[in-house]
Design a protein that fits this description.
CATH class of the largest domain: Alpha Beta
Order of helices and strands: HHHHEHEEHEHEHEHEHEHEHHEHHEE
CATH architecture of the largest domain: 3-Layer(aba) Sandwich
Strand order of the largest sheet: 1-2-6-5-4-3-7-8-9
CATH topology of the largest domain: Rossmann fold
Number of strands: 12
Pfam families: DNA_processg_A, DprA_N, WHD_DprA
GO biological process, one term: DNA-mediated transformation
Protein name: DNA processing protein
Distance between the termini: 60 Å
Structural class: alpha/beta
Family: Belongs to the DprA/Smf family.
Amino acid sequence: MQLTDAQRLDWLRLIRTEGIGPRTFRTLINRFGSAAAALDALPDLGRRQGKRLEPPNRARAEDEIAALIRLGGRLIATGEADYPHLLQQIDAAPPLLAVRGGAILNRPSVALIGSRNASTAGLAFTERLAHGLGQAGLAVVSGLARGIDARAHKACLQTGTVAVMAGGHDRIYPANHASLVDAILGEGGAVVAEMPMGWEPRGRDFPRRNRIISGLSYGTVVIEAARRSGSLITARYALEQNREVFAVPGSPLDPRAEGTNDLIRQGATLVSEVAHVLDVIGPLIERGPDADGAPARGRPDLREQLSFWDEIDLDALDPTEPAGQTPFARTLPAPCEDLEDPFEPDDDRTRIVALLSPSPIGTDELARSAGVGVRIVQTVLLELELDGRIERHGSGSVSLISR
């Protein structure tokens, strides 16, 4: 399938209508045969549900497309050849995906996600894993956040990475990752979003983004995640999408490892080297994107999945009944850590302490992660050692003593 410009405009107006999400969009297309016919039917559907369904006018939709084009992007529709094949298979796949770059989107991919407040050990392992996966020919998908996400993107710029945004393409979040976006695009990677141009990300937009991260990937690797982490939401979506879930074990003394250790207890594949991912993903890639995914392991019932939007419930609408108020579908609550960035330390000592964990790490790596000189790190470590807060190991590595 290839949409005409007029059809693409109709699709955009329909999906941008309040009360129309991916599932309702699909139902409307199936019921009326085209987006144009569905747009014509919206006033009557709205009256029967006691709600005004008013799509944006053509000029507003044309402005959005023009703004995306000025940034070098384009809208790709489900069913078109460039639309990611794996993403198209998930429930509630975005009908339209705004893409910059994009040649990499149908390369076999693995998602790497984790804590924004990551430890130096977690960041170092992320870099090693992302680099290895890239060298094996896989694209690495992540969410452009601080911490694990950013390190994953940077580690495989030359081999290919995909960043999934929670807001519009002109609302990079966090804002200081604009240079990272430029680097991703400059090296042949891709940046994707489903929200409109000008859209500032809100709490509920991050779960929407997360189901795209897992949907683009054969498997999702969680590297560091607390028990109430947005990364665990992504892992849940991966299960619902019949994709593999991997977790990197961590110290039981580190709260950033509680979520990943729980995932392993629940059946996620333990990862301590690149081969652990490749051994599982390799056979799935050989079978192709149209084959069934991972074997079922108590996966949630998709019929019980919460909606991402306040969508009108067309299935509950009986055309023989008089007009009335039809309830909207339930929506996902905002994850606890995704609405705002965590505390960003503004002094060297606080930043270095935040990067330490019960896992030993070398001072050179600690200095690189903190963005300071080795001499500053050594001074801070001496102070921490005198306070009884760190333990020194062989080869100059140190670890945090949990209290």
